# Entry
Amino acid sequence: MPANGDLDPLEAFRNQVKEALEAALEAIGIDEEPVVLEKPPQGMGDLAFPCFQLARRLRRNPVDIAEAVASKIAAQGMIDSVKAKGGYVNLNVNSESLARAAISQALSAKDRFGAGSAKGVRVLLEHTSVNPTGPIHIGRARNPIIGDTLARIMRKAGYDVVTEFYVNDVGRQVATMTWGAKNLTINEKPERDKGDHRYVPFYREAHRRCDEEPEVLEEVDALLYKLEHGDSEAVGMNRRISETVLEGMMESLHQINIRIDGFTWESRLVEDGSVDKVISKLKLSDFCRESEGAHHLELESFGITGRDTRWVFTRSDGTSLYTTRDLAYHLDKFTRSDVAINVLGEDQKLGMQQLAAALEIIGSDRKPETVFYAFVSLPEGRMSTRKGTVVSLDDLIDEAIERAYEEVRKRRTDLTEKRMKEIARIVGLGALRYNIARIQAEKQIVFKWEEALNFEGSSAPFLQYAHARACSILRKSGSRLREDSAEICSRKLVNHHERELIKLVAALPSVVGECADTRRVHALAAYGQDLAGQFNQFYRYVPVLKAEGDTRDARLALVEASKWALRNTLDCLGLEAPEEM
# Structure
């Protein structure tokens, strides 16, 4: 429900349709039939009730059933018309009622338009959580963008969301970097004087030497052992280096409007005994096996097959693995949340299946939800942090702003240099975030500059320009909105372009709610494109500033409502909403 207490107008229509259909089905002698609604093709209606499943059960013609049901529904309230066609009951919303409700909500709620009432559900959403061994690269950039966008959408929908970064400061990769920083002298100058870039050369060289020099690998393993057993010098140095790298990562994320609420350090779970408690429980399990001093769980009975049935949770020297510590972390998460959500790469699917089995084995009745995403790759192939073949997020940000500046400079010669650079920053970073958020998480992205920074069609600049255009119209109008704006909109906004725009404005609360509940951010990006496209159609074919009297006032009210719908969509996507471009 919207935050202002009024029912979402499209949800009110849906509820009325369900009630009318239930009554109609009962009237023709069909009881206890669930009402499942669909979105019909363009021009067929606003909601449709298919009768085919019902026809199979009753052994009747679906066309006949649809006609019988439609004949029992009257056009009243939010329902404007009811028609049976091809086995469907198609229903249209009453345009006047929808305009009155949607415009009223948008104009009164403003930046809260589209928001849901507080649900009283605590959500801990973990995202990014990359190893603190170097800069975030484009291959993993989907993680923070999907995570932050989902958090924004869920907050808008009424969930109490906290975002968190799990810092892997105990693992082998971080120990390798710490060994390199302590033992190597490297003259290679980083491209940026930031923590994440500063330590990359040490990590790469130390990793190479681990592969080639057994004695170096032994020293790294010894450091790892010290970290797991609370050696103050090792833990302190490792923590300082990790904090420096993490600071550089956060600088990168801040540039694309991502801020993380909290951090859980893996070393804390080792130091406070959480990991030891988990290991003790696992060792007592009937699924525990020991081999040459190492311990593992046998997970074949949990649907895991092949070599993956062995889930190792301690090495032969007694040290834990990342997966063991991750299990302790999830138990900690469950004490602080009602819903725990992880944003993870698709390569973690097996790991999450094993984690769920381990949670069941130690008696937990909770499991995390996971949003998996496919990786981003370059046209020439995969990237590797270890080999240094990466495009970092910082590189991507610089390129995005530079290309956006060239576009702004070509289009807006009337602006000062300072203003052009500011617009270029807003547009470039928006293009970067939107290009990743708009693709369904499960689908792979082959990263191409020309697509990421496309300024036409399915892009952030397209949405941002629609918002800027709405702001420009309102500035030029020189008018204040009337108290009865919603009422005159219900009477005066009657043409096709106006009514279609009203429907899209009215849809924002439902879209936000659905995206939050299904944990899918790309649908909001698609909605934004539809909204911006319909607003452009309205602007092109419907005069606003040249209209007169009530018609002008009603159209200005629709522009204002559209502005808030666009702005709030952009905000949920983590994009700035410029008032000029």
Q: What stands out?
A: Confidence is low (pLDDT under 50) at residues 382-388. The domain at 127-373 is CATH 3.40.50.620 (Rossmann fold).
